[in-house]
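Sequence design from tokenized structure. All designs in this work follow the same two-part layout: the structure record, then the generated sequence. An example of the structure record is given first.
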């Protein structure tokens, strides 16, 4: 099955915590309260409706045991962010 990739550009925010144990979120909103513990990116250029059908379908039913190509949170910058996730 071919890879499906989406690239999302957005920005960091002083209230980014990224402490949720199982969820990450990108939002098109520009404001972020301290309650958003799963949000990594604000002012994202894409929302769910902007992602391809292939990507959305693959993210609902990922290939079992597929390795993630995402970078660990510690290696991300707090300024402009580019988030990429590829499903094999």
């Amino acid at each position: 099955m071919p890879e499906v990739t989406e690239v999302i550009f957005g920005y960091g925010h002083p209230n980014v915590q990224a402490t949720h144990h199982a969820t990450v979120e990108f939002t098109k909103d520009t404001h972020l309260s301290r309650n958003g513990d799963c949000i990594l990116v604000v002012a994202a250029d894409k929302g769910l409706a902007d992602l391809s059908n292939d990507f959305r379908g693959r993210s609902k039913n990922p290939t079992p045991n597929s390795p993630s190509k995402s970078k660990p949170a510690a290696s991300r910058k707090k300024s402009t962010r580019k988030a990429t996730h590829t499903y094999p």
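The longest helix spans residues 53-60. We note this feature because it recurs in several other targets discussed in the main text.
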